[in-house]
Amino acid sequence: MSRKILLVEDEAPIRDMLSFVLEQAGFAVDEAEDYDIGLEKIKEPYPDLILLDWMLPGGSGVQLAKKLKTHEYAKDIPIIMLTARSEEDDKIRGLESGADDYITKPFSPKELVARIKAVMRRVTPTSKEEPIEFNGLVLEPVSHRVTSNDEAVDMGPTEFKLLHFFMSHPERVYSRELLLDNVWGTNVYVEDRTVDVHIRRLRKAISKHGHDSMIQTVRGSGYRFSVKI
Q1: Is residue 217 over pLDDT 60?
Q2: Do 108 and 30 have their domain in common?
Q3: Within the chain, where are the H helices?
Q4: Are residue 190 and residue 111 in the same domain, yes or no?
Q5: Which of 72, 180, 210, 212 is surrounded by the fewest CB atoms within 10 Å?
Q6: What is the mean pLDDT of residues 139-154?
Q7: Span 88-109, pLDDT tens digits
Q8: Closest to 89 (Cα-Cα) out of 208, 206, 229, 197
Q9: 214 to each of 156, 174, 209, 219, how far by Cα in Å?
Q10: Residue 187 shares a structural domain with residue 160
Q11: Both 109 and 185 in a single domain?
Q12: Angle between helices 192-205 and 157-168 (to 10 degrees)
């Protein structure tokens, strides 16, 4: 069965072109031309990924992304923002709204398909491995669950993969570039600041019982996962 993409784009010529490109790449495409219709389309069977334009009638793509991240079933669907905005602050704002990637118009169809495949690869559940545990923080790769002192922790797929990488490589310092290569992959362009955004999300997710202190910033070098103070 083809993986389903929800395309939320208000300009019909762009929507038609993107739908054609995605269908040629083997995806099933559902379309929405504004904020409200995009929200209505979030129902079973849920899309595997959402392509979301920044500027939409009825509300912005940023607002829609934030709304989806509060949705009981749609919160883990990866989002790629499509926008003409290229300023760094705009990119960070898009990522902080819940987007997993950000692509600036104009872009080539080949780049778009590559970005989609890269995001889908990194949100696919990790291969079968034993649970990893540090001081009451438990990550289960098979069931894709995280618990903190026996309480379930809710986090996005990128944060899960980032935590899995950290917990699999404790006490080692990784630069943003190395984290990008290992978590996001070497064949997709993502800016260094993206790492900081996801680190903040991850720390927030595991902060209730103080496990956020395990993800340590090493000034001038990057980040490490450590049980040492």
Answers
A1: yes
A2: yes
A3: 12-24, 35-40, 61-68, 88-96, 109-123, 157-168, 176-179, 192-205
A4: no
A5: 72
A6: 93
A7: 676 677 777 778 888 888 888 8
A8: 197
A9: 19, 14, 11, 15
A10: yes
A11: no
A12: 90
